[in-house]
Amino acid sequence: MENQKNDKKRFLIITILFAFLIINIIVWGILDYSKNHQTSGLGGLIIALIIAVFGYKLLKSKYHSLKQGEPLKDERSKKIETKAGAYTFYIGIYWLLGLGIAIDTFQLNIPASSVPGMGIAGLAIIFGLAYWYLDKKGE
Amino acid sequence: MKNRIKEFRAKYDLTQDDLAKKAGVRRETIVFLEAGKYNPSLNLAHDVAQVLKTTIDELFIF
């Protein structure tokens, strides 16, 4: 019963944070595009869309679990999270390295202030993909 | 790891949902466990074996 209450609270917090994240990225994308007419803003909107689709699916399955009285997290989902985190770390190193090299080599016109955001968004996408892959695979 | 969860589940007329609730895990965990795609911890193996009124040795084929 106590676990169920905690799970409901956790679900509510995740939903609010998710909504904030999406609104934030969309506002940032629109402002950036309207100010600079640069593609980095559009990129942000595309990333927001990808996160929104992944997040919606995740929240839907969590909501379904809550209604069924299942725990939000269990042994397997915790293992998957840990593994996805490890994958993100390994792949993320190459992503950040590749991003740096690509900006230098191709002289990409990306404002320096957007680079950390792109790096973090990339890591979030890698984590999402790793989680999805491990979840489908079994562990 | 191969196991006899499905067989024991049928014996006690339990659905995957029932077993998941009794073992305190998500239904997907039972699905993957039954399919042999997930190796449980000793704790989970013990909990599932208890719900199915058997032992770990009987339930899992090593």
What is the percent of helical residues of chain A?
over 70%
Q: What summary fits the major beta sheet of chain A?
A: none
Mean pLDDT reading of chain A: 83
Q: Count of helical segments of chain B?
A: 5
Walk me through what this model shows.
The complex is a heterodimer of chains A (139) and B (62). Chain A has helices spanning 2-36, 39-68, 75-105, 115-137. Chain A is mainly α and 139 residues long. Chain A has two domains: 1-73; 74-139. The mean pLDDT of chain A is 83. Chain B is mostly helical and 62 residues long. Chain B has one domain (2-61): 434 Repressor (Amino-terminal Domain), CATH 1.10.260.40. Helices cover 60% and strands 6% of the residues of chain B. Chain B has helices at 5-11, 16-23, 27-34, 42-51, 56-59; strands at 2-3, 60-61. The longest helix of chain B has 10 residues, at 42-51. Chain B is globular. The N and C termini of chain B lie close together (7 Å). Chain A binds chain B through residues 65, 68-71, 74-77, 135, 137-139, and chain B through 17, 20-21, 24-29, 32, 35, 37-41, 43-44.
